[in-house]
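Researcher: Quick test of sequence recovery. Tokens follow.
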């Protein structure tokens, strides 16, 4: 039985809200003290790691040339490292979902395990393509860049949701949709960065990956909606304002 709400215990909740005015004032002071303490840490903190310099001579030369042109290749290497880390996590998220579906999937949604294996293969292929791209610039794909560290921390919650044996397929898909939204945004940035560096071969390959991520997002969002029992056929279109109607009727993005 869920007892988390305040209404579960009217007497205790009244006592809890019956606070001495003096205590209310000191609460504000405590918040200030906490913020001040945090500010001190922020002011004195180091950065979140650094972008490692290419270890190979060709890499160092390539990077030196780019630096002369003022194109800041560190940002590109940092973001390539970020996508690499995220695709690796994505592969593991789909591994976890496949395991869950092998036990729980009962055919009430259109998603199949084969679909998930296909997406998992895309994420793994993207990971390898990024490792190649980093190597082609003289970088070391096994090094952790600051943005790789960042997305690793960001996705911790998603990994926890997928690996929790209690989460349902709908709940797992909710986390997967969050991952795919971030994936799509990440690839858009990477395509733009590669374009800025005039790396046309990378632009082509990254655009292909972006299109695949767009498809992942459209698919997983549809499956999630099916899993919570929402189908477009059930929506009362007449009761929605005109703009929502047109959004509902428009086909999903490619
Ligand atoms: Fe994806």
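Model:
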């Amino acid at each position: 039985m869920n007892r988390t709400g305040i209404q579960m215990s009217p007497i205790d909740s009244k006592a809890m809200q019956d606070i001495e005015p003096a205590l209310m004032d000191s609460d504000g002071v405590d918040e200030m003290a906490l913020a001040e303490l945090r500010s001190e840490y922020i002011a004195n903190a180091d950065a979140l790691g650094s972008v490692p310099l290419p270890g190979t001579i060709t890499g160092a030369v390539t990077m030196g040339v780019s630096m002369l042109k003022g194109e800041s290749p560190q940002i590109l290497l940092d973001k390539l490292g970020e996508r690499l880390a995220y695709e690796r996590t994505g592969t593991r998220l789909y591994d976890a979902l496949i395991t869950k579906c092998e036990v729980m999937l009962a055919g009430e949604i259109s998603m199949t395990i084969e679909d998930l294996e296909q997406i998992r293969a895309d994420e793994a292929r993207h990971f390898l393509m990024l490792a190649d791209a980093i190597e082609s610039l003289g970088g070391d794909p096994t090094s952790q860049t600051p943005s790789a560290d960042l997305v690793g921390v960001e996705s911790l919650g998603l990994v926890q949701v997928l690996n929790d044996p209690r989460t349902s397929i709908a709940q797992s898909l909710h986390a997967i949709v969050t991952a795919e939204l971030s994936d799509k945004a990440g690839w858009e940035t990477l395509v733009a960065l590669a374009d800025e560096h005039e790396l046309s071969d990378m632009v082509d390959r990254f655009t292909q990956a972006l299109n695949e991520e767009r498809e992942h997002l459209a698919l997983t969002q549809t499956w999630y909606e099916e899993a919570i029992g929402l189908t477009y056929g059930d929506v009362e279109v007449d009761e929605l304002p005109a703009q929502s109607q047109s959004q509902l009727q428009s086909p999903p993005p490619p």
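Residues 242-250 have pLDDT under 50 and may be disordered.
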